[in-house]
Amino acid sequence: MDLPRLKIGDLVAEIPIVQGGMAVKVSTAPLAAAVAEEGGIGLIAGSGISTDELKAEIRRAQELTEGILGVNIMVAASKFKELVEGSIAEGIDLIVAGAGFSRDLFDMGKESGVEIVPIVSSARLAKISEKLGASAVVVEGKEAGGHLGTDRPMKEILEEVTDAVDIPVIAAGGIIDGADIAETLQLGADGVQMGSRFVATEECEVDDSFKELYIDAEPEDSVMIESPVGLPGRALRNEFYERLGSGEVKTGFHCDYICLKDCSRVYCIIKSLIKAKEGDMTNGLVFAGEETYRINDILPVKEVINNLVDKAKSLLNQEESIDE
């Protein structure tokens, strides 16, 4: 028995795995293309960069694969519409949107033929998305890394959403290995979105110290932070987190990015994420999922996906044999 294919509108992924779009510049072209090349869906992070940078990143990925490529853009971004329009102009396959909700996005998707996939954390929002024309929804629970829209576990929300809508449902948050994938599919999800596991790959273009923080993480290193976006965020404990908690990180900064529609100015989220990507753990914020401590190695994307698929298939086949 093979894993089910993931159908999102007119798109069909050979395996039901979506690689999360992690910003800033964590999910870039080589990572997204490598996942797409293996039959999954690769997402480029479109937040925290300019429209021209995003368009260049999409073109770079398209040169590496003919697989399914998407972008993940925060609705809270000040240039949200421009980023969406730029992605559509470059022939992106789908747009995943979180950190807010945009009704206009669905009209843009219908006009362009690009599949729209909002991130939701409730059955109510999933039903609204379906009515507006969403091709699928990503159900994200509290276990996910980065900005969170809920404090509820993914599995709890997943059950409610699968009962409420007829479009494909993709589960996100706390999914690390093939056993997680098998369990999530058995719970009714049509696919999974995984971010943290793909950070610890050779194709992910972050500094080695960023990946090492993942590999060395313990359960207690998963922490919640206050983000200027106005949402809580899940990160890993590092020097920046300790400085933030002690009040050493100054507020009221001069903004060089104007990246958010509304910013609390607690600290500069873009600057801190870029610093982390470059390996500066004193000034850099490292987003990561709650289950990151279960990641123990850095592998090529191809090997990660083979491991995920083999384990998930084995467990699903065992379950099928028991049912027979």
Please, could you describe this protein's structure?
The chain is an alpha/beta fold and 324 residues long. The protein contains 12 helices and 13 strands. The strands form 3 sheets. Strands 3-4-5-6-7-8-10-11 form an 8-stranded parallel β-barrel, surrounded by 7 helices. Strands 9-13-12 form a 3-stranded antiparallel beta sheet, with no helix packed on it. β3 (17-19), α1 and β4 form a beta-alpha-beta unit. α1 runs parallel beside α2 (51-62). The protein is globular and about 50 Å long. 54% of the residues are buried. Keywords: Dioxygenase, Flavoprotein, FMN, Oxidoreductase. InterPro entries: Aldolase_TIM, NMO.
Labels describing this entry:
alpha/beta, 13 strands, 3-stranded antiparallel β-sheet, 12 helices, 8-stranded parallel beta barrel, 38% helix, 324 residues
In short:
With 324 residues, this protein is of the alpha/beta class. Helix content is 38%, strand content 17%.
CATH architecture of the largest domain: Alpha-Beta Barrel
How many structural domains in the coordinates?
2
Order of helices and strands: EEEHEHEHEHEHEEHEHEHHEEHHH
Q: How is the CATH topology of the largest domain named?
A: TIM Barrel
Give the low-pLDDT segments.
Answer: none
Mean pLDDT score, rounded?
Answer: 90
The radius of gyration computed from the alpha-carbon positions, rounded to a whole number of angstroms, is: 18 Å
Question: Helical residue percent?
Answer: 25-40%
Task: Please identify which CATH superfamily of the largest domain we are dealing with.
Answer: Aldolase class I
CATH class of the largest domain: Alpha Beta
Major sheet details = 8 strands, parallel, barrel
Give the N-to-C terminal Cα separation: 14 Å
Silhouette:
globular
Count every helix, treating DSSP H or I runs of 4 or more residues as helices: 12
Query: Strands of the biggest beta sheet: in what spatial order?
Result: 3-4-5-6-7-8-10-11
Find the count of extended strands (DSSP E, 2+ residues). Answer: 13
